[in-house]
Description:
Layout: E1 2-14, E2 33-48, E3 60-66, H1 83-89, E4 97-101, H2 113-126, E5 129-139, H3 141-152, E6 159-163, H4 171-177, E7 182-187, H5 195-207, E8 212-217, H6 225-229, H7 232-239
Parallel strand pairs: 3-4, 3-5, 5-6, 6-7, 7-8
Antiparallel strand pairs: 1-2, 2-4
Amino acid sequence: xxxIVFLLLFTALYTxxxxxxxxxxxxxxxxxxxxxxxxxxxxxxLVYLPDQYGAVKQDWPLMLFLHGAGERGNDLEKVKFHxxxxxxxxxxxxxxIIVSPQCPEGEWWPNLTTELNYLLDExxxxxxxxxxxxxxxxxxxxxxxxxxxxxxxxxxFAAIAPVCGGGTPTPRTAREMSKLPVWVFHxxxxxxxxxxxxxxxxxxxxxxxxxxxxxxxxxAGHDSWTETYNNPALYEWFLQHRLEK
Length: 245
């Protein structure tokens, strides 16, 4: 188990033409307000290193996995319920560094893009990461987080795979993600996150000229992740992509 603590400093500064408090009834005057405050967040995460990590001197591809809403909290065992962490826990091996953070209780992955970016920065400093092969995937709430993080930092990822998520595309975000390889997964009978949520993002990126894949499971409900993460083709697809500097 790894733990990262974020200490974010924010400054709110409003400036006006008046340097001190001035009362002028019947008029409006400029005043100044300045306040500094801190936000501290603790985010636990699982990290998996390939079997050969450290045995040979090389940089390794990195996969960031974002879990769903049901796995939030402070019990990392819950992160192993689905996806790559579940497969690692049952003995499967991968040629990636896999980082699986846990979303704090009451938070929402799309609201934590800054914190996730700080986490990635720390992982890059601590481990032998190939910065040209950083991949992003997540399910349900993590699917929403995948879209949000990729929209905020499209230059950071070599490829992404959102599973039963969605987002709110804008012409700018669609344009900036249009060169990012994307493989989307969703169940046609999903009654938790309607398939229209994924379709909206797929259509926006296609309109922007993106080469995007969309896999629909005709009989699947909300659990479209089990088949997705059990499919070796997903991991092979990831490894085909790298950032072009």
